[in-house]
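Quick look at the format.
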Amino acid sequence: MYQYLEGDVAGLTPTRLVLDVGGVGYDLCVPLGSDFPASGRARAWTHLIVREDSHQLFGFADRETRDLFRLLLSVRGVGPQMALGILSGLSRGPLLEAIVGGDTAQLTRVKGVGRKTAEQILLDLSDKAAGLHAQLGAAPTPASDELKANLEDAVTALVSVGYKEKEARRQVERAAESVDAGDLELLVRTALRG
């Protein structure tokens, strides 16, 4: 119904934006870390959800993030609050890379997203996200493919020394959070230390 609203910022919190448009204050739910100014004029790309008991207006700093929000809403089991939470936990680029690359570990790091939901997101959105990813000119990089290969090699290394695959994967994912996943030797050593 509304593509965007443009007006003066009347209020801004980490999760809410109030825009004064022609004397009417629109209260928008926004992802954490949104790039809106604390004062002055702003444009918010919007999505309106109408329910029997409420109307919710969601605002985004750019059209692409709003479109990604809409894609997330198309996933079975993902509602507006979860979609907003996902966009709060992962910015657009890393989220698209996680979906296109099939990285459930990255998605499950977001509060409220479990393994089943992450798998459903990948199942429902991998093709659509790849199109949006390409449209934004951010095709997966060889570096990200190399990192994925390193992660898999590290898992294989841990399995070869007696770890169960599930535990090996968990250890490698933990290690990748604290060290450079591009350095396979360091990644394996860190994963072995637990």
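Next, a different chain entirely:
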Amino acid sequence: MRKLSKAHSSRAKISLYKRINSATEWIKEFIQNYNEKYAFKIDETKNLFVPWEPHEVDMDFALSTLYSRKVLNGSTIKFENKNYATFNKNGTRVNLTKKQEVMIVKTFTGEIFANYYTNFYSLIEIDKEKFVLENINIEVQKLIKLKQLAINEKIQTEFIIKKSGKNNLPLLNISI
């Protein structure tokens, strides 16, 4: 405002105006001429509020909050004192690398997603202790299956060697 008043006062020649009345009349004329030249016309019928039209932007994601978290053991993510597992759109479990940083997106409606390299995964709350026990049981079952396969293969190789009648070949000893 001060700069504007300096600009106006510099245009008025102070030496011409000895009285305040003549200076105020000059200012009135100057403001009127200035507004005619530079001001926009006021449109009283125009509404200042712009109506909201549907956009391609998902407002739920636009109003979401973002958090950064690191992946823990067992590909779990801890968020708000709860453990979550990541699942893709098909509902299959996605295992992320340990200590990998992911972006957690909490939407306005309360849904929680994990963003990892432009891929969004839904987060489902899990019981950490139960989840660890299930993983251990799965690993044990895999080891048992591998042992059974190795035993079956050993029996088959022994049978093939005995059937061929070549006693000079050594038997395969597989121990697990």
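Strands lie at 65-70, 76-79, 82-87, 101-106, 112-116, 119-126.

See the schema section for token definitions.
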